[in-house]
Amino acid sequence: MTSSWGQGHGGPSGPQHLPGPAETAHPFGQYFGSGQPYNSAPPRPVSTTAGRAVGIAGIPVGVLLGPMGVALGIISFLQARRGDGPTGYGVAAMIVGGLSTLALTLFILAATAAALSTVGPDQRPEGAGSGSQVPIGSMAVGECALEADAAQPVVTLIDCAEWHQAEVYAEVDLGDGPYPGENGVVEAAESLCLDAADALVPPSADVSDIVVSVVVPDSAAWNEGVTFARCVALDLSGRNMAGSITEGTLQTR
């Protein structure tokens, strides 16, 4: 059988002839022993300081002032690229600054959402009515919201006669004394709101898709004297409630 590999002059079983160094073909032209291509420019000397100082400074700055750390990291990276310096410091400053910025943004969003979704004073725009957007924690008893979502603390008010998803149907007193903690407030509010729903919802109404949710005060609001919770009827299937629970005219579809 003939091999696909090239054979020496001695035949398949004879001595093989391998080309020496002088006979080796280089597909890309002449090479020197240093490995550099013929007529190629020598590499620039590598700097070990370009961008280093700015990058090192950007890391702690990024922890405290995220966007500033990102900016210093970019400057360090560009300086290092131009001067063949170490780029790792700039990359590290950008990563630290970016993570710090992300953490700060998430904290602000979470704090804002928590503030908007808890019962508290002075949350409602003056003159807000049907079509207005208000924090769900500021809805009054008997008001309805077009849609309600735990991830969206601001809702659009709508006339309860129209199809809607949520209604604040009761306000329950949680007592006085020191703040009982988040779990204690929620448990007390849920129990009282369920009792209120049993008393208000017409027996003929189909409530299989409706759940009771609560909007409760946090510790700051409690210390300001807000010791009540609001009870919300929420239709999990969407905008399928019409009429009012508080008026005894609830309909579902």
Give the number of helices.
Answer: 5
The radius of gyration is 36 Å
Instruction: State the strand order across the main sheet.
Output: 1-3-2-4-6-5
How many β-strands, per DSSP?
8
Q: End-to-end span in angstroms?
A: 83 Å
How helical, in percent, are the residues? 25-40%
Structural class: alpha+beta
**Which whole number gives the mean pLDDT?**
75
Write the H/E string, N to C. Answer: HHHEEEEHEHEEE
Fraction of residues in β-strands: 5-15%
Q: How does this model look, in words?
A:
The protein is of the alpha+beta class and 253 residues long. It is 34% helix and 14% strand. The protein contains 5 helices and 8 strands, in the order αααββββαβαβββ. The chain has helices spanning 52-64, 66-83, 88-117, 182-200, 219-223; strands spanning 133-135, 144-145, 154-158, 166-173, 210-215, 228-235, 241-242, 251-252. It has a 6-stranded antiparallel β-sheet with strand order 1-3-2-4-6-5, covered by helices on one side. A hairpin with an 8-residue loop joins β7 (241-242) and β8. α1 runs antiparallel to α2 (66-83) and α2 (66-83) packs antiparallel against α3 (88-117). Mean pLDDT is 75; it is low at 1-38 and 111-116.
Secondary structure blueprint with pairings:
Elements: H1 52-64, H2 66-83, H3 88-117, E1 133-135, E2 144-145, E3 154-158, E4 166-173, H4 182-200, E5 210-215, H5 219-223, E6 228-235, E7 241-242, E8 251-252
Antiparallel strand pairs: 1-3, 2-3, 2-4, 4-6, 5-6, 7-8
Attribute tags:
34% helix; two-stranded antiparallel sheet; 8 strands; 5 helices; 253 residues; alpha+beta; single chain
